[in-house]
Amino acid sequence: QVKNKAPAEVQITAEQLLREAKERELELLPPPPQQKITDVEELNDYKLRKRKTFEDNIRKNRTVISNWIKYAQWEESLKEIQRARSIYERALDVDYRNVTLWLKYAEMEMKNRQVNHARNIWDRAITTLPRVNQFWYKYTYMEEMLGNVAGSRQVFERWMEWQPEEQAWHSYINFELRYKEVDRARSIYERYILFRALAALVLVHPDVKNWIKYARFEEKHSYFAHARKVYERAVEFFGEEHMDEHLYVAFAKFEENQKEFERVRVIYKYALDRIPKQDAQNLFKNYTIFEKKFGDRRGIEDIIVSKRRFQYEEEVKANPHNYDAWFDYLRLVESDAGAESVREVYERAIANVPPIQEKRHWKRYIYLWINYALYEELEAKAKRTRQVYQACLELLPHKKFTFAKMWLLYAQFEIRQKNLPLARRALGTSIGKCPKNKLFKGYIELELQLREFDRCRKLYEKFLEFAPENCTSWIKFAELETILGDIDRARAIYELAIGQPRLDMPEVLWKSYIDFEIEQEEYEKTRNLYRRLLQRTQHVKVWISLAQFELSAGQDERLPRCRQVYEEANRAMRSCEEKEERVMLLEAWRSFEEEFGTQATKERIDKLMPEKIKKRRKLQAEDGSDAGWEEYYDYIFPEDTANQPNLKLLAMAKLWKKQQQESEAAAADPDKDIDESQT
């Protein structure tokens, strides 16, 4: 047993083993001794022994053809052609399908200039094995080398009846061209591309490349009309079902060589319109190169547009709901194509309705309809535009969601067409089906522009019934009444508004109401409004705003009133937990006193200002564990300190601790105190 299974330090590869064996030549055998034959009897004896050896080998295994071939070649080396021929015939009786046997047999006859025997062997070979092309190639080559052109042509004709591969046809054509038989080569090409199998009735070689080779053959021999006819026949032959870009590229290049640039352009456009875009990459490339070489600016732009259209077609085919790709595609089509083409692309785009009825999936899709309607209005007639808007509005699931933009654009379109009843009907329908703030605002704005104030009042009433918490609507309604001069209605609207149980922006509503009363110079009502607001909230900004109002009221007692508001606010906010708001109030009060107060009032407000101190508090994580400490700033107000004796005791303790630290430091370093006293 091997105990140490670790790999050896020196590794030996198979390559090293083979190299060492070659260098040492371990299996090298000495060559056999040479035998010298001096007379006929020794020669006959040698022949007898060799023939016996060969016959024994053949008898052992008749199917090993190499034994037969070695035997025949040995007889051939002795110029015993008849014996070699007999051996080959015996071998063919054993395996007549062996290609090598036929080739060696025929080569022996040709090598010994037995032409008729060689022809006989080739005829037997191609009759027995007609699908072995090598027999045909060698047979035709032998006849051509012998100068028997007619015989070689006859062999080619026999070969073509077997419908061989393409190279065989090209060999036949090249054979005819070597002897300047252009007409014969043309007839072979005709048979080559249109030859039908008798049994299957299908084309043997219907490839496009064969037609192209035929046309180039005609072009090479300066038969340009024939070449053009070949290309035209190829286009007609393959039709629109089996179109290939290589055929059209070759056709276009042929016409380009003939300086027929208009024909080239027509060929490229014809092909690009009919070949699937994913199969026309090479066609696009060649068309672009042609236009850059021989076209004008318009032609180059056309090919670039065509290429971009192909890209967009691929994108929308891959994902029909990629609306951004549709937008880019439509932008391109609108800049280049006619109205019918643009309309067709729009119809294809809007047919891709989002599969899910959720508004977020429809937000991009709806702009396809909007752009379609605007295009029809600007480029086409109004009747189609109305149909587009109506079709879009019928498509939208209004019970789940709607798009106010679409209703408003339709109404604006009808107004541009001077059809006001239809616009009002559309907006009324929208409010009835799917009321939204934006729809109410758009309808009210329309009626305001038309100066229909009674309609505006009705719309505002409907709007506020639908959304009573919308402060902006209340404010706009009151402003409308103010503009119309009906102050009592405006005030009543404000009173109704602030009495609502739920409001989205109450501070904006109260501010608007207060500003309204200030504009009307109703100062007592303004003060009452402030007091009513302070009953609901004690926010510092309300107190500051009231103080500023008293300051700007313009009366003789404005300063005492303002100072009284600040004092009342300070008393009210002592119980407030938000100390920053109280600091904000005191800073506003101090600013007021610095501008309008006396020295005594300034000193008084300075005494009220708090002290800012840094504190630490313990933090806890969400799971209740300790999360460390944090520092924060706190404010200590003098008024609160006077009411809390514990704070005074704490301050005295801090002062005592500081004095203790100073005395300990002095006792620890007496020399320093002496030096300082001497100094």
Automatic annotation (TrEMBL):
Domain of life: Eukaryota
GO cellular component: nuclear speck; post-mRNA release spliceosomal complex; precatalytic spliceosome; Prp19 complex; U2-type catalytic step 2 spliceosome
GO biological process, one term: spliceosomal complex assembly
Matching SUPFAM superfamilies: TPR-like (SSF48452)
Pfam families found in the cross-reference section: HAT_Syf1_CNRKL1_C (PF23231)
Pre-mRNA-splicing factor Syf1/CRNKL1-like C-terminal HAT-repeats domain segment(s): 66-361, 367-531
Keywords: mRNA processing, mRNA splicing, Nucleus, Phosphoprotein, Repeat, Spliceosome
Protein name as it appears in the record: Crooked neck-like protein 1
Subcellular location, principal: nucleus
Record has tRNA-binding as a keyword: no
Localization terms from the record: Nucleus speckle
Location of region: Disordered: 659-679
Reported function: Involved in pre-mRNA splicing process. As a component of the minor spliceosome, involved in the splicing of U12-type introns in pre-mRNAs.
Protein family membership: Belongs to the crooked-neck family.
Gene: Crnkl1
Cited InterPro entries: HAT, HAT_Syf1_CNRKL1_C, Syf1-like, TPR-like_helical_dom_sf
